[in-house]
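Batch job 17 of 40 flagged for manual review because the log was empty.
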Amino acid sequence: MYEKNHYVKAIKACKYFRTKYPDIDLGPEEEFFSNATEEIKSPVLSTDSNHDLILKRLNYEQFQRKELCKLRDKLEQQKKVLQETIANRKKFLSSLPSHLKALKKASLPVQHQLGVLHTKNLKQQQLAELLPPPLYVTYSQLFAHKEAFGENIELEITGNIKDALAFTRRLANKDTENSKLEDDVPDEEEDDGQRRRKRPKKVPGMENLDQSGIYQSHPLKVSLHIHDDEASNSNSAKLITLKFEYLIKLNVVCVGVEDSDEVLPNSILCNLFPDDAGLELPQQSAKLCIGNSCSFDERRTLRPYKWAQHLAGIDFLPEVSPLVSVTEDPNMETVKHSSILSALSLYRQQNRVETVVQRIRARKKSQLALE
């Protein structure tokens, strides 16, 4: 009985013996017979054919895995070399902006010497994209006239870039919110037939106009430097500098003489064209915003001249029909308006930029000649 139990135990151990083979993922037999070399298939490893086949397949699997490990090591080395190359190139690219900035800074004297202000013009064009539409029209018209006819003028955009970017983002967000509100507004119900009464808007006084932001201007401004056109050299004397600004709530463009030592700095621009002293707002909507006092603040050096609105592409209707003003008094008004119409004949042409620049330059030359 003891011997019997010993044999039964040995038979059971052999019958249920577990090897590592079931846990090994071998390739299919077709792949073994087609791809295995004769060195693996030819030797006989066991008298049992099934066991011999399994041993040969295990040897072939070991051979394949060794080759794959060698290939992996080779690819790891290539990967390491490529990572070092990429790191060096990234380091070069990260240092490239500083090199380009230094190169651009070093080329500024050469640009000034050759008269090719590429860096300055590129910066001005980037700033022009942040201008409000009226100032952008003014800048583009003056720049186009300079490029087309060689006018001896210089343009410059000044102001705080960060504030201009913040204003542009705020305006874009406001437009998005307004569009969403318009989509969300429900249809008005008129079942009760009652209409809601709107409260009249409070008109601010003159002392509270600045506090209410009526005269709030855009952060960017356009400066126009007018040079003497009769000078032979390229570095001609600068006659006058004008600064254009845009008042956001009034929707008007104001212009004035910059850094003037005169007692009346706007004497050159005042009545540059007939009946345009710059003290009256040209638009009815702007007058409604100001309220009872329709006149512009005289303390401000930049004023909303009518010709500045035309340069900015802002056209408006006159308060009184021209026919009414002409036919009021045939004896006196006809002569007066005939002179005004003759003076406005040049202004009503499409050469607005050329007309404005010529008149400002002529008036400044006359003033210098008198002095």
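Reviewer: the log was empty due to a logging misconfiguration, but the result itself is present. The two ends are 142 Å apart (CA to CA). Unflagging and moving on to job 18.
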